[in-house]
Amino acid sequence: MEIRMLKMPELLPALRLAWEVFAEEIAPTYKPEGVESFRRFITYDYICQVWQRGNLVFFGAYEGEEMCGTLAVRPDGHIALFFVKKQWQGKGVGRMLFQSACFLCRDQLRVDRMTVNAAPKAVEKYMHMGMHAVSDVCEADGMVYVPMEMHINGGLPVQKKGSKAPWIALGGYAVFLLFILVISAMVVKNEFQAELRDRNRVYDYEDDYDEDWPPYGSGNEDSDDGMYSDEDGGGMLSGVGGIPEYIAEDLPYEIEDDEYMYSGEAMESTLVEFSVTYPKITGLADKKTEEAVNESLKNIAKETVARIYENPSPEIKERVLTEDAPLLIDYVDYKVCYATKDILSVAYDDSAYEGGQNYYAQHLRTCNINMKDGTVYEVKDIVKLNDAFMEKWLERMRQESGKQEFLSELDLETMRKALEGDSREGVYEVNFFLDEKGIEIGFDLNYKPGDPNDLKFAWVTAPFTFEEIEEYTADKDFWKYVRK
Known about the structure:
The protein is α+β, with helices and mostly antiparallel strands. Helix content is 30%, strand content 26%.
């Protein structure tokens, strides 16, 4: 996937993409005058004039020759358009576009905040990307939206007090890597400046552009992986955001947000950046158990940070040393899928650049933990992985993927070992989570580049209702704690 600033010949395809997505997914929810306002706004003649005056920067996401998504940002940091093709939602395209706009706003436009007029159903996702609402729902020209903003403070999120920068973990590479990153940052900056000079564009904050541009309206920004991707455009969530959670009433503990944030220091551009959110439990009677639970919740959320930064593999080190613009970036959101006084099940959505722009990956992480003693459960602890289960599970996995050839590279015994924890060098990372309906068991998939078995799924899980899984349950305490 390539993200680049668009030139004039690419504006028309970008506007066509925006209109097609808007017409299919958003227009049915707008009043007729709202649809007409948006149509007038994205006419080529108008946008071309605005673009030539330097009052819009367009980014495009490309897979080969195909434009998969587009984002337009004004010189004051306002996102004016943000659309991703339906078939590319849930693949991290929206997040990459948003990050590119953030870098531009910080490093070139030198604005201290970004703003957007978000479709109501997109508010939660913008919050996960760091934005917050600045007023209640508004309506203008038939379009309903929520004004939101994010202060970027020069682009460097503030490191949490007490958080130690783990750069030392790179050992003898540290000083050299720091030098490489600084030089790369300068290269990135120079490329942006050259691009702007080539287009003869001057960012003039006094230009007479329209301050009342229509609100962003796609509702499909897929920073969290396929949300709003149902076929009828009705706004049904999928991915981690679509898990139907069960939260028991009167829990004897509180669930709060916690976070780990770190941005590389002494660099002109933020090429090392982590924003990892995870749940924190308070109120357990046994404080040692509470500490153990929170340590597990945090460590699982930070698995990618540990792997690419705190204890990087030789492969990651090599990428950082050889990439023109190395990136070590990780964003993690979470959802509590199931919570009772005895059991907590959490799913983490993890998106990362693991060395450079060509090494973007999405991961599913899960944590299923006993709130009485801090035990973290694995699939092999709770399910009998006999042939009957394996055959039913594989059938479900292929149904979920829609590909009969999915996992055809593995025999049944190899799949069983993978579910027991043998990931085959990290390719098949087993996960499971509980939810309102039952349990889902599957893999976070990490094929090597060029692997012919890679069908481009970040992760797939097979659902079982509580009734369906009962005949396969192992003789463990786990199931007596689960609501039937």
